[in-house]
From TrEMBL:
InterPro entries: CheB_C, Sig_transdc_resp-reg_Me-estase. This is protein-glutamate methylesterase. Keywords: Chemotaxis, Hydrolase. It catalyses: [protein]-L-glutamate 5-O-methyl ester + H2O = L-glutamyl-[protein] + methanol + H(+). The active site is at S24, H51, D144. GO terms for molecular function: phosphorelay response regulator activity; protein-glutamate methylesterase activity. It comes from Frigoriglobus tundricola.
Length: 202
């Protein structure tokens, strides 16, 4: 499948209030391009689910803390969201957003054989933020995140997908495009700039 990257459509857009990002195989390389490119004054909270082994301590937050100009931490249960902060889901816990927009951790059954699962975060955040949410689906080897991206779009939010032609593993972004044809396909090197534009509207 050939997908041509497109520029987000101009015109009025919902006020962005939060960003959710999902990635799997190739996640570290992709996030190493995206997250350090976010500006120091980025105004939105960013929640990230990466498929990580359940039996090992995650080093994702530690790895990115020194690379980024925004605050980076591992999410904690019942933690309120703060602007300009990146929250990584801890190993073996689903990361959700409660209706009061606090983070929540769950040990419910894996989804797509994964815990944390991208769909769980995307769908709960879509319920909490509605049109104020922006979902980003990156490289990965499963369909996790596709259903959640569609839920974000159905709630009026923004849906962004890494260009599959440049993804280390294109399965996940292709599944996202198939489930959510209205998603905007963005080259990874332009993703932070697109998010920065959305942040300026918040």
């Amino acid at each position: 499948m050939t997908v041509t990257p497109v520029t987000p459509r101009p015109g009025p857009a919902p006020r962005a209030e939060a960003v959710v990002i999902g990635a799997s195989a190739g996640a570290v390389d992709a996030l190493s391009v995206l997250l350090p490119a976010l500006p120091a004054g980025f105004p939105l909270p960013v929640m990230v689910v990466v498929h990580v082994p359940p039996d090992k301590k995650s080093v994702m937050a530690e790895l990115f803390r020194n690379k980024c100009r925004v605050d980076v931490r591992e999410a904690e249960d019942k933690e309120p969201l703060a602007p300009g902060t990146v929250y990584f889901a801890p190993p073996d816990y689903h990361l959700l957003v409660e209706p009061d927009r606090r983070l929540s951790l769950s040990s419910e059954e894996p989804v797509h054989y994964s815990r944390p699962a991208i769909d769980v975060l995307f769908e709960s955040a879509a319920d909490a933020f509605g049109p104020g949410l922006v979902g980003v689906l990156l490289t990965g080897a499963s369909a996790d995140g596709a259903r959640g991206l569609r839920a974000i779009a159905d709630a009026g939010g923004g849906a962004l997908v890494q260009d599959p032609s440049e993804a280390m593993v294109p399965t996940m972004p292709r599944a996202g495009i198939a489930a959510c044809p209205t998603a905007t396909v963005v080259p990874l090197t332009q993703m932070a700039a697109v998010l920065g534009t959305l942040g300026e509207r918040s």
